[in-house]
Amino acid sequence: MKYRKPLTLSVVIATVTLGIAAVQAAAPVIVPPSVPSNLEVPAGSTVYLVGHARGTQNYVCLPKGDKFAWTLFGPQATLFDDNGIQQITHFLSANPGENGTPRPTWQHSGDSSSAWAAAIQSSTDANFVAPGAIPWLLLQVAGAQYGPALGHKLTYTTYIQRVNTAGGVPPGDGCTIATDVGKKALVPYAADYFFYRP
Asked: Which pick of 24, 92, 141, 175 has the fewest CB atoms within 10 Å?
């Protein structure tokens, strides 16, 4: 029988290190989406997270001048990763960093970290946006918050792009007379959200 020399600690460490490096190397690279020029993020921004949203854009019928109109009062959606695993919830909530101003909100499903953002650019460019779909957006983060256990996944975020939208536009009728005021419409939509950090 041949004698086998025991593995030294340095060999074990080197093996583990190589294994970790291989896993990191195999991690998928997120490619920023092609967008209209006004939706491009500032130079130096790096995309680090993407979520595929399914949910509703929620509208309420309200007076508008001497008429009536469907008015957006917020989204309600769940964002999934490429494997269909829930990673973020999306809704409207008060931003504590702006004295409670209502903002679109993203809350990480794993560590409960949150980010609030405001739309700074919008596009309905037919070369990008599908017919009957809500606009694509560029949003700038206006506040962020750690989760209860100091979760920080979304606190790095500086910009968010909403792209590849489908559906979500307000109804074409049902909000024309005074008795319609207060009616709500929850319109299904889908979109991809790309999250950027410095």
From this structure: 24
